Q: What sequence folds into this?
């Protein structure tokens, strides 16, 4: 074709407009959804497209219908009319947790449910992770005022069992971002070029559903030293693909 048009994923403002249209089409039953609730859902729907938001509204409607059904089952008379079916902001947030972004459905998406309070100790490490990842999203004006660029990544190192993976899960949960957990050896393939292709596809999916936390477990399997080992050529090709991908990571901004 002579021309190609890239239809990228909607931003936060566009997602809010889409939710308004979908809720308006649902009729007067959604009058209980406030602007604050709509803004909250739009801000948390990272990587969601219009079809995903439609599924969120359908899930919210099903939750509201089940709630009214329970009331009808408990009532001996018809005390609940059809017009009492109302979708609330809590229904939208619950529906949001049940729908995954279309951009991440082809890869294994893990939804962690770990809070900072579930991890004992490590106060300094927790604070450093919050400053590097959470603050650029929640306090962007502070970085602009001080002229500081947020870091593109964080390297966690330590002995096995010291809560590195657990802190990455807690970071994704507390920040509300998408989370991709990848073990280094999973991307390696014996076929020529397949490892580099898998690595490129992983970062492409993460950029489409940004902001996304990519957690590389055992990253040393991918990023080894150049010219070492029998499979040095294969590892160098993977490392040559990994470095430009890391260099192309955009800083966290709302």
A:
């Amino acid at each position: 074709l002579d021309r190609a048009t890239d239809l990228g994923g909607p931003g936060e403002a566009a997602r809010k407009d889409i939710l308004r249209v979908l809720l308006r089409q649902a009729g007067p039953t959604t009058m209980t959804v406030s602007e604050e609730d709509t803004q909250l859902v739009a801000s948390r729907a990272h990587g969601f497209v219009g079809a995903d938001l439609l599924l969120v509204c359908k899930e919210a409607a099903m939750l509201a219908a089940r709630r009214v059904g329970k009331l009808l089952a408990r009532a001996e008379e018809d005390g609940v009319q059809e017009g009492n079916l109302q979708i609330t902001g809590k229904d939208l947030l619950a529906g949001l947790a049940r729908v995954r972004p279309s951009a991440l459905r082809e890869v294994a998406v893990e939804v962690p449910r770990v809070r900072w309070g579930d991890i004992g100790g490590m106060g300094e490490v927790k604070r450093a992770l919050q400053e590097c990842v959470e603050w650029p999203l929640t306090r962007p004006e502070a970085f602009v005022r001080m002229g500081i660029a947020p870091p593109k990544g964080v390297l966690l190192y330590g002995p096995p069992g010291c809560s590195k993976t657990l802190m990455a899960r807690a970071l994704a949960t507390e920040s509300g971002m998408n989370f991709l957990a990848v073990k280094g050896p999973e991307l390696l393939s014996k076929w020529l070029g397949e490892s580099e292709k898998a690595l490129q596809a992983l970062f492409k999916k993460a950029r489409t559903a940004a902001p996304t936390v990519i957690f590389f477990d055992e990253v040393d399997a991918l990023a080894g030293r150049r010219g070492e080992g029998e499979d040095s050529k294969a590892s160098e090709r993977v490392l040559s693909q990994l470095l430009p991908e890391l260099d192309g990571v955009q800083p966290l901004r709302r």
Notes: Strands lie at 178-183, 212-217.
